TrEMBL record:
Domain called Peptidase M20 dimerisation: residue spans: 220-335
Secretion signal span: 1-17
GO molecular function: hydrolase activity; metal ion binding
Superkingdom, taxonomy of origin: Bacteria
UniProt KW Iron keyword: no
Protein name: Peptidase M20
Keywords in alphabetical order: Hydrolase, Metal-binding, Signal
Keyword Phosphoprotein annotated: no
Pfam families xrefs: M20_dimer (PF07687), Peptidase_M20 (PF01546)
Length: 443
């Protein structure tokens, strides 16, 4: 088991690893690289164990079991654990781990998730090493986000061994429904938001962004994600009268007008509004999940109803409010004989808006990378990442930084993989960064 092996490792002093001559690591920080490397096999074994337990978002028992395994791994490091049951949202719950430090340094919120997109009926269920590349581990959720949990465990274990964890005030929130959030969302994310109000800094431990050239990036901003439903209506009548004052244009023409005006008149930087499903005719009804539309009609009958549902992604609250107003204004310009209604969902992910404090935190991480002799991280384009749990707390903390976990690929698909050496690399970066944050006075 991880806990026994980890305890054995921590019983031995860790020698300082070789670092570049120009590095400005403190004596305690110099012990971190060797501490990370000493437990590499242990952390990889732990990753294999949790990957081999199915924790699809709807697998309540599986998510709870992984939560218990994680709890048993972190408690020897001095964390107290609390399981937040989420039966009222139809999900398993969340694991909150707390480390009480000196109370003087930056309060850190570390965010990840226990669940995966792979439910028990998926054929993709087991962890394995790529026979052609032993650095590549394949398995459901191995990168998203069980690899992130492995980075957390490796970093915090190294801090413990190096003596830098003691002063650190840390809360870890590992949600059990990130891939398919429970409803209502204000309940499902209530405890995460409470932790965000407590924290000074938030760090998101989902996958590291890496470009085609292998260059690594940090994420200082993420767009929102919400859904909308557009319903248009017209006068059902014989098609020979279409476009006339008496019969009007019908629901489908009104739908097309609105969608095309959005496309041509509302587009701007970092904004997307996708149409995911659409149907229209004499009748058109969308199901309770908003995923399927049943419609029927005849070629000689003007369409009476049309329905479309899609997604909206914005970078800031201001952009979100402005875009919604523009979309509604276009909706109100009805063609003759038609009407339209646009409704935005209440259960959406907010934006992690860019701010200079986030960029400054990335700068601190790059200083850490330089001191460790590792490459610096660039600033990732927010339009290239989806929404995430860190967005719920970014407005409350002084600074937030996402994408702090592993390098991998094929997320959400059979063949998902993680590059194992990225666990070690990221653990070193994050352990030193958190060690420094723990010593920075609160504002």
């Amino acid at each position: 088991m991880f806990t026994a092996r980890c305890a054995a490792l921590l019983a031995f002093p860790i020698a300082a690893a070789a670092v570049p001559a120009a590095a400005q690591l403190s004596p305690a920080e110099q012990r971190i690289p060797a501490a990370v490397e000493a437990e590499t096999e242990t952390v990889e074994d732990f990753l294999e164990e949790i990957v081999n337990v199915n924790s699809g978002s709807l697998n309540v028992e599986g998510v709870r079991r992984v939560g218990q395994m994680v709890r048993e791994a972190f408690e020897p490091l001095g964390f107290t654990a609390e399981w937040i049951d989420m039966a009222e949202t139809g999900r398993a719950g969340h694991l909150v781990l707390t480390h009480e430090g000196s109370g003087e340094g930056k309060r850190m919120l570390l965010i990840g998730h226990l669940d995966t997109v792979f439910e028990p009926d998926s054929p993709f269920q087991r962890y394995e090493l790529d026979p052609d590349d032993p650095n590549r581990a394949i398995g459901p959720g191995v990168a998203d986000d069980k690899g992130g949990i492995a980075v957390l465990l490796s970093a915090l274990s190294a801090m413990k061994a190096a003596g830098t964890l003691a002063p650190a005030d840390i809360k870890i929130v590992l949600t059990g429904d990130e891939e398919r959030p429970g409803s209502p969302l204000d309940v499902a994310r209530r405890d995460l938001i409470e932790a965000g109000r407590w924290a000074d800094v938030a760090l998101g431990f989902e996958g590291l962004s890496v470009d085609a050239d292998g260059l690594e990036y940090g994420t200082i901003a993420r767009r929102s994600s919400t859904s909308w439903t557009l319903t248009t209506t017209g006068r059902q009548a014989h098609s020979s009268g279409v476009f006339s004052d008496a019969s009007g244009y019908g629901a489908i023409y009104e739908m097309v007008r609105i969608l095309d005006d959005w496309r041509s008149d509302v587009r701007e930087g970092n904004l997307t509004f996708n149409v995911g499903v659409m149907g229209g005719g004499t009748t058109a009804e969308i199901d309770d999940r908003g995923l399927a539309i049943s419609s029927s009609g005849k070629t000689n009958v003007i369409a009476q109803t049309a329905v479309a549902r899609g997604g909206l992604r914005t970078l800031t609250p201001e952009q979100d409010a402005d875009v919604r107003a523009k979309m509604q204004a276009i909706v109100a310009l009805n063609l003759p004989g038609t009407d339209a209604e646009l409704v935005f969902s209440d259960d959406g992910y907010p934006a992690m808006a860019p701010k200079e404090a986030n960029r400054a935190l990335l700068g601190e991480l790059n200083e850490v990378s330089r001191d460790l002799g590792l490459p610096e991280l660039g600033e990732w384009d927010p339009a290239r990442r989806g929404a995430a749990d860190i967005s719920f707390v970014s407005e409350y903390v002084d600074a937030a930084l996402a994408g702090m976990a592993t390098d991998g690929g094929n997320s959400h698909a059979p063949g998902e993989y993680v590059l194992l050496d990225s666990i070690t690399r990221q653990a070193k970066r994050m352990a030193v960064l958190m060690s420094r944050l723990a010593l920075q006075p609160r504002d």
